[in-house]
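Incident log, structure service

09:12 report received: a user says their structure output differs between two submissions of the same chain.
09:20 pulled the input from the user's history:
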Amino acid sequence: QVQLVESGGGLVQPGGSLRLSCAGSGRSLHHYAVGWFRQAPGKEREVVSCSSSRDDSKFPSDAVKGRFTIARDNAKNTVYLFMYPLKPEDKDVYYCATKFGPCSHDLTEYAYWGQGTQVTVAS
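09:34 re-ran on a clean worker, output below:
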C-alpha cells in the first residue's frame, strides 16, 4: 500500500510560481505512474500531468502544457509539480495519485490518492 501526502500549495499572484510535492511512503513511487490532478468546487477532477514509471515520460494536459512540469526525485520518493506562470484559472485543489502501468486519463485506474493541497491564484 502507498501513502501519499501533498504539500506546497498556497496563495500566489498571477504570474507567480509554486512547487507542489507529493511524498510517498510504504512503497517506492518508482514502481508507479504518478499523476497530478486538480478539482474545483462543483467540477470533475481532471488530469494535470502524469509521469510514467517505465521511462519517466510525461503527459501534461493542454491547459498546462508549457507552464507546468512534473518531475521525480526517486531518492526522496517524491514527485513534484512545478507551476509557472500561474493563472487565476489554475485555482483548484491539487491531488496526486498512483497507478500501476502507464499513465491514464481514467481516474478510476488510480488506486492511491493523497488528501490534496489548495492552490489559490489571486492579486
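09:41 both user submissions now match this output. Likely a transient worker issue. Closing.
09:42 reviewer note: The radius of gyration is 13 Å. The CA atoms of residues 37 and 65 lie 14 Å apart.
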